[in-house]
Specification:
The protein is mainly alpha-helical. The chain has helices spanning 5-12, 25-29, 41-52, 60-74, 78-87, 93-109, 113-126, 131-147, 151-165, 170-182, 186-199, 206-217, 221-234, 239-251, 255-267, 274-286, 290-303, 310-322, 326-340, 343-356, 359-371, 377-390, 394-404, 411-428, and strands at 16-17, 20-21. It folds into three domains: 1-26 and 51-167, Serine Threonine Protein Phosphatase 5, Tetratricopeptide repeat, CATH 1.25.40.10; 271-375, Tetratricopeptide repeat domain (Serine Threonine Protein Phosphatase 5, Tetratricopeptide repeat); 378-433. Residues 1-28 form the signal peptide.
Length: 433
Amino acid sequence: MKLSRLILTALLYGSVVTGVSLPNLAVAAEEKKKPAKPKTPEQIALEAKKKKRPVEVMSEKVGKQVGEAYTLALEDKLKEAIAAFKEIEPKKEFDNAYVNRLLGILYAQDGDYKLAYKHIKIAADLDVLGWDDQASSYQILATLSLSEEKYADTIMYYDKWYEFTLKHDENAYAAKAYSYYQLKQYDKVIEESDKVIKYAKKPKSDPYQMKMTAYLDTKQNDKAIEVANDALKVFPEDKKWWLILGQLYLSQENFEKALSSYVLSEKQGFFTKENEYILLGQLYSMQGTPYKGAVILEEQIKKGLVKKTAKNLGYIATYYRQAMNFEEAADTYMLSGAESNDPEDYRKAGESYNLAGDYKKAIKAYKKALELDSPKADLVKNALIDVSFYAEDYKSAYKYAKESLESKKYSKSAKGWIAYIKETAKRKGVDYD
């Protein structure tokens, strides 16, 4: 997780050299302070510790060298500034800490985070800097640790920073949550994510995502669903959470609630992908309203959001058939067959036309299946006996019945049909052969 030079520069810069304040971009970026609230006992104790901390200054010689080196940095001569700082040989602990802190900041600006970490750690470990500089050093080390994927160190230094500041910083809690996740300490992920949610200046989706993921990784899907529902209360217009909630209900095989989530998402205009509509259609079918599944897919094909493929047309036809809308099912199977040239689509169309009582169309569909060498030719011929007979085409019915005698599966049925066709044709005075 590498951080950009710009971000680090904004975060890291802030020091005092020989009594002159340097640019503190992190502070400058903060919002204006709100009216002070009554101090807590914890804050009062912290202020007492802050007052007791010794205030030291650099030796005159080192202060002068630091000023000269930093002037180079201000002139954008970063390499020269680093070289100048490296030539300083501080003897006092405070001078050593101060020089190493500034050198680490310059290395961070130069993009060398390993050396930045090394020098700022030296400064922080000496623990002699002024209160604010010591605190910011811990914050810098936490940031650098995260950039170098040192997750335990990230947590440790943010905790040290908090001890010095008592600041509830959403970014610090987010970094800790991410670090705990990498360390697979999922309870801590949830705890820190809750803090991000609590202390964020504006609601953010990320901590909910992190918290939900922690629950999913620990097989607590019910808890993950609770988080998704909580997120939706805060971000009702974020389509991601509606879809996530639907997927979570699907994982629990709670198809009723999954359907409800997807319906609400679709009605709010959050669907943008074909597979979302396909899944919605399947859920309608599974929950006993296949007609709605067929209609919504047809609508989206007309709008161009769902492709007019044989597969998608097959879904629609199946849903219409489940809804007992046999004529629509048959017509759609015919459209699917035109796209796929698959005899099975035409066979299913024939079945559906038969169920709808449209025997002439059924004959046409079945014949098309035979033309395309249907692997279920025996079944198709046996079906043609039925539809031809009820279409009063006794010659064709007799023809397919005779052909079906060669089928082991349908020969017995064919014999019965032959006798019935002969009897009916004679009674009506029409030819059958």
